[in-house]
Amino acid sequence: MKFFISIASYCDELLFFTLNDCISKANKPENIFFGIVDQNETTQKEKIEKLDFNKQIRYVYINNIDTQGVCWARNIAFSLWDGEDYLLQIDSHMLFEKDWDTTLINQYNELKKISDKPIITTYPYNFSFDEENNPVFKKQSDKYVLVLRPHPDTLLEEENAVLRFRAEHKLTDKPVLGCHVAGGFIFTSSDFIEEVPYDPFLYFHGEEQSIAIRAYTRGWDIYHPNKIPMHHHYKTINTEYSSQHWNKSVESKRTLSASYLKIRAIKRINRLFYGDGMRDSIYGLGDKRTLDEYINLSGIDYKNKTILSL
């Protein structure tokens, strides 16, 4: 069974660390295939070709000035899929645990006993680098599941349906049915690529809300796992990075500014949750479940603009 790993990378120094670690920790590295959209100042094609597993990589380079955000790039990354069985979408700054592929398949097979279309997703725990540049992380407890819920300080505004989410610990040793996805860690059947393609007109905020509701209304079930076989290198809040799409160093050089892309995305999210659901579009709500059913599941009442605690 083959994996398609979708990666949208933006000026990320850890891209090759992620690729090498992913392959080296896999139980069956020969079954791992990458679709990489590298948004950068210069192409890294030659460096890709020097990797021992370069034949397992489909690589697209786009100058970072010409890009339109993570959703736009992930839409392109999905187009690099070539019939592999599973989809794993990750960020380009990840650390893997040994036999991560076997862990995910085993979890997925267990969920298939209760759901026709399970999705495994949550915000992975953090990893960092020590003074000698070695990756370090805290050992996970399998007694808790990270459940994604709206941040307590976030509100549904009249003109803005975009919410902030956070991971909350739930004491359980079993996967938890959820209502939200983590864009940096999604594992499921590759059927997802054709049924829930990324909306390229979104920017950054609202990405995960869009994917979650569109997947749910097409009959997919979101589960947060009790074992996350990878870690994420998180940025420090309120700190500027050159690896952020909206960094001022490139903002003025773009035809479509970050502020414009953000406003356009908010209008699109508002239409999805507050308007007609974009049912005339592949990027709109599905017809297997309703928005009301999603509201009952999540406690996020988009109609009355309230959020209930579950």
TrEMBL record:
It holds the Pfam family GlcNAc. GO terms for molecular function: transferase activity. Keywords: Transferase. InterPro entries: Glycosyltransferase, Nucleotide-diphossugar_trans. PANTHER family: [SKP1-PROTEIN]-HYDROXYPROLINE N-ACETYLGLUCOSAMINYLTRANSFERASE (PTHR34496:SF9), GLCNAC TRANSFERASE-RELATED (PTHR34496). This is Glycosyltransferase. It comes from Candidatus Sulfurimonas marisnigri.
